């Protein structure tokens, strides 16, 4: 079944940030450990802006996810990474095995 409406790229990126916040909350709970500081990265400036905005000023879809992100994570720990420097996107941009082996994806 095909969706009636396709999601915009920023909404897909927001969904990824939402999933990350839920996963982080669960992992921290399972480890039963408090972390002083953690950094969450996004290459979407739009998503970063939404996360740092009060949900009441956002559309319902965005507000619901932002609200939960803000409940599960501290918005001051969200940072922007330029797309070209985002190791998470390296494979999706297309690269060969040698490029991947020598990339920041493996080496940091």
TrEMBL record:
GO terms for molecular function: nucleic acid binding. This is RNase H type-1 domain-containing protein. It comes from Bactrocera latifrons. InterPro entries: Retrotrans_Pao, RNaseH_sf. It holds the Pfam family Peptidase_A17.
């Amino acid at each position: 079944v095909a969706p009636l409406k396709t999601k915009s790229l920023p909404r897909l990126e927001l969904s990824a940030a939402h999933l990350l916040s839920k996963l982080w909350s669960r992992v921290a709970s399972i480890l039963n450990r408090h972390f002083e500081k953690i950094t969450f990265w996004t290459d979407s400036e739009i998503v970063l802006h939404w996360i740092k905005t009060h949900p009441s000023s956002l559309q319902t879809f965005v507000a619901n996810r932002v609200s939960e992100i803000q409940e599960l994570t501290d918005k001051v720990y969200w940072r922007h990474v330029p797309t070209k420097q985002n190791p998470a996107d390296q494979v999706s941009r297309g690269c060969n095995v040698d490029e991947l082996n020598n990339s920041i994806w493996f080496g940091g």
